[in-house]
Design a protein that fits this description.
α6 runs parallel beside α8 and α11 runs parallel beside α12. 42% of the residues lie in helices and 19% in strands. The longest helix has 17 residues. β9, α12 and β10 form a beta-alpha-beta unit. The chain has 3 domains: 64 residues, no CATH class; 37 residues, no CATH class; 166 residues, 3-Layer(aba) Sandwich (Rossmann fold), CATH 3.40.50.410. By secondary structure, the protein is α/β, with parallel strands linked by helices.
């Protein structure tokens, strides 16, 4: 039975220790020699979501019967739409059946969010709400016990005194690891209106993964700190608070002046700074270039997310992008879910090999 649980874990079923104990406890009250008893005991205790059921069936058939079951058809999802009646009560307007397949989600990953239908955008928002981003680790100044590193003479002497002066095992200490801070500046100007909402939802997912190591600012005609609003766990409530906190939606962009204001504080020092903008600078591009040079010296890494980079014919020819490009470590497309996953990989410490 333990081997069957390991098979489920390898297939992607979240059968943790507690679920395994529940599975074995259920079998104690059933007949282990009966196939149906084992099947339903495992299905009710080891599966935690509808996605686990087809994986469980395949693993059960392969592990206990030595065969591969036929592929089941794609599940059908019925979407019911409601419209408001004249008196304000919702009325059912129709139903539509959709085949939820992996290929559909794969196609959606590469789609430009600016051209999505409302249903597709809602699905992208749902996937962003489920996203968990890892964080590159850095060495802190605090030391902690470790299996290797520098010798810890105090622990060695204390253990030797406990043994009456007998030689003790060598003990080591090393610097504690902690997630590197990430600072996001999201452009909410008029030229970024098609992408600003999705980028802010991505910022919410990044903030939720490491709330104490993330700072988020909106950039338009002024710089606005929105970290507190994005620390709310519910995405809809967080976006509602963000919309009220940002006073310059769909305005112009003065990235040079805003970066100069941002660099007056300590947020950029040693952090991964992510700038999400198309580079349309209304101010002086030379000011933006000078502030980007300062930022490249202070930050650990500078990542620029430009939605237009997803177009194969895109060239960074705008004044703002030309001024900032020499000081960028990574230029990432910010137009699709696949591009956001690439950004998440950069935040986790993976390198793409291109700048």
């Amino acid at each position: 039975m333990a081997g069957f649980v390991r098979t489920l874990r390898a297939a992607g079923v979240a059968a943790d220790h507690e679920r395994t104990r529940g599975f074995l406890a259920a079998l104690e009250n059933l007949h282990v020699g009966r196939r149906g008893d084992v099947y339903w005991a495992g299905r009710l205790t080891l599966c935690s979501s509808p996605d686990d059921l087809p994986r469980y069936d395949r693993c059960f058939a392969a592990y206990f019967d030595g065969r591969q079951p036929p592929r089941s058809p794609a599940p059908t999802v019925t979407v019911t739409r409601y419209t408001a009646s004249p008196d304000g009560t919702p009325e059912q307007s129709g139903e539509k059946s959709l085949a939820a397949t992996a290929s559909t989600l794969e196609i959606l990953r590469g789609r430009d969010v600016a051209g999505l239908t409302p249903e597709e955008r809602a699905e992208i928002n749902r996937l962003l709400a489920l996203m968990r981003t890892a964080r590159e680790q850095r060495a802190s100044r605090r030391l902690t016990s470790s299996k290797r590193g520098r010798l810890d003479p105090r622990r060695i002497v204390r253990e030797a005194m406990k043994r009456g002066g007998e030689p003790a095992r060598l003990r080591f200490r090393d610097r504690r690891r902690k997630p590197r801070r990430v600072v996001l500046l999201v452009d909410v100007s008029g030229s970024m209106a098609a992408y600003a909402d999705t980028l802010l939802r991505l910022a919410h997912a990044i903030t939720r993964s490491a709330p104490r190591a993330t700072e988020v600012f909106s950039a338009g005609t002024r710089l606005t700190r929105i970290t507190a609003e994005l620390r709310v766990r519910d995405p809809a409530l967080a976006m509602d608070q963000v919309s009220r906190a940002i006073p310059d939606w769909s305005g112009g962009t003065r990235l040079g002046e805003e970066l100069r204001e941002f660099l007056k504080g300590p947020d950029a020092r040693g952090a991964i700074v992510v700038i999400a903008s198309d580079g349309w600078e209304r101010g002086d591009p030379s000011l933006l270039g000078a502030q980007m040079e300062r930022l490249s010296r202070m930050a650990h890494r500078v990542i620029w997310v430009n939605p237009h980079k997803g177009d194969p014919a895109y060239r960074p020819l705008t004044g703002g992008m030309r001024a900032a490009l020499p000081y960028i470590d990574d230029l990432v497309a910010g137009h699709s879910l696949a591009a956001y996953e690439e950004l998440a990989g950069l935040l986790a410490g993976r390198r793409t090999g291109h700048a």
